[in-house]
């Protein structure tokens, strides 16, 4: 065929017409083949001695081609057009098909071709767009003898190996019968194998085990490499050993698929049958007048809920109106769904249902002591609060605010109060809340409207007098959607919450029986009107002894229990526990302490699994193996001229605050502040500077010192913002120490604000500041006289060993600091 002829007829190449004509003339049934689309293709299969010694190769990558197969192949036109043209120019029209793996045929080397392939006759060659289609009729296995062209078009010299077979052998015949029976078993359960395949199967008999085995392998879904191994196995008996398990596996998969389909169909039929029966039952009941539709069922459900409730008259009137409306609405209408949801909420609330309070002070003390170590003043305050409720008859209508640093147990104390009272407990965090609808609900006109958190709390606890905790109330947000803090005013005001109105319910609710407990880290961000409605209970930080007791009695046992470990497996000494507290968890609360103990448990668990000791012992000596180097070192009190230790309060608890004053040069007069100070502390520094300049002679300092001195006042840890009205006395002492050239050579700390006339004003956070002083081994402090009562109310264990001086005016401070 010339190139011009090929280009003219490339869309319908049928250069095998003569061969097909001769094949159709053959009436030998043993040479009949089939196309995959059902059209029979009769071709005279050439005998092995008529097959060419040189053939062109076509690589395929999905699965190998077997001699017993007749199926269409589609190949890339651009890559294999020349190969197919040359095959078409041969008299035998035979092509070698070889499986080259599942990776593709784009980048091949001649070494990628297997030694064994299948010679096929090419029928019905057609070219369409970028593809060439033809029907391949498997003829016989070939073995590559020599490569004549290692680049496309691939040309090889081949031999056609014999396939040793003893068809009369009993084992061979038994295998052949097993394969035929397996194929027949596969046909009815897999619809992929149709009637044409049954006719095709009739061509094979136990006396032709080779083609039968190849056909059985070809119809399985085994992987390409497995099938190539079958193709390369020449002895028929050995080949049958490999194919029969593949066929058996195919039958098992087909049966499983059939069972799954039957189960799915059975389920669908059952559901359809149930649906039809239910519909018939509804019609029968309706005809007999004994049925209830969905609307009547809903109305009965809501009325049954109200039987055990004491619903206020105004609420009952609203419910009756809504029930009447529900009874006339169509169940499929949107308004029906809205009304039903509204009634669902109204009838789910515990109208008139309350729990009995346990106003037993000894029980309350037992619960608080069991759940918390330390905090004796807080516990007493709570017991006093409950004692007051004993005489009133209940503790409802109270709003308690627990204020303290993170991790001191505010939330857990709220739970303990609820347990001591025998009340239901409900907690939700208002931190970051920006939408007042979270408190007062959405109006029902909105899509997806819901009641507020308080109504949801009532539905969950099922009583009207629970303990409701509003966590993180100092972190309320505000946005264009409203001000939640203002919405809380109605909730927390005892004069208003008797008639609390939720926008969704649109009926008045009584919140006066609820005990509200709020938590906050600081009071600065709580709006004044909201703060005015709360009774404050301040939780200060823990000292080391309290943390030690909390860790031994609560944190460590809880961690061991959570991880299914015992004290015998992990032994933590008291000295090591104290070192954890002082070196790794010095914050006011115990949350960081729990994290560090958790680290110890994790690392000890690794040792138990890898090294398999009976016990892992943690002591001071090996503590750094578990936690690394200590985060906190022993704080050294700074000493020297112009250096004074102050006491400060932060949201994380008390802290020591060293203040340094130094003379920079004598070129001119000046005053400089550093340390990221807030406006209040800057004003305190300026007052201290002015007071010191005006009273140098009174305190025996160099009266000319500041005339030519440029003074720099610094508060260390400059990256940490600092503000608050309690550093005036400390700054004045630092400046006076610099002017007197007299250092404070003993551990001494002080706090207090100073006026321009020298009066010492009271400050807050006395407990936290005393704890901070003890933590730094400072047992001598100066406090304002107005804070004497605050100090005397401290627990005895905090005051033990402390020397406290109280000052009305700064001259009282100077006498203590600069005594000879």
Topology-level CATH name of the largest domain: Ribosomal Protein S5, domain 2
CATH architecture of the largest domain: 2-Layer Sandwich
Helix content: 40-55%
- How does the overall form come out from the CA principal axes? elongated
Structural class: alpha/beta
CATH class of the largest domain: Alpha Beta
Count of separate structural domains? 6
Range of strand content: 15-25%
Question: Main sheet, how many strands, which sense, barrel?
Answer: 7 strands, mixed
- Cα end-to-end separation: 125 Å
For the residues shown, what is the average pLDDT?
Answer: 80
Query: How many β-strand runs?
Result: 26
Number of discrete helical segments: 28
Low-confidence stretches: 1-49
> Main sheet: which strands, in order across?
20-21-19-18-22-25-26
Radius of gyration: 47 Å
Q: Could you explain how this protein is built, in words?
A:
The protein is α/β, with parallel strands linked by helices. It folds into six domains: 106 residues, LON domain-like (Archaeosine Trna-guanine Transglycosylase, Chain: A, domain 4, Roll); 88 residues, Up-down Bundle (Methane Monooxygenase Hydroxylase, Chain G, domain 1); 55 residues, no CATH class; 158 residues, Rossmann fold (3-Layer(aba) Sandwich), CATH 3.40.50.300; 84 residues, Orthogonal Bundle (Helicase, Ruva Protein, domain 3); 176 residues, Ribosomal Protein S5, domain 2. The protein is 42% helix and 18% strand. The chain has 28 helices and 26 strands. A hairpin with a 2-residue loop joins strand 18 and strand 19. The protein starts with a helix and ends with a helix. Homohexamer. Organized in a ring with a central cavity.
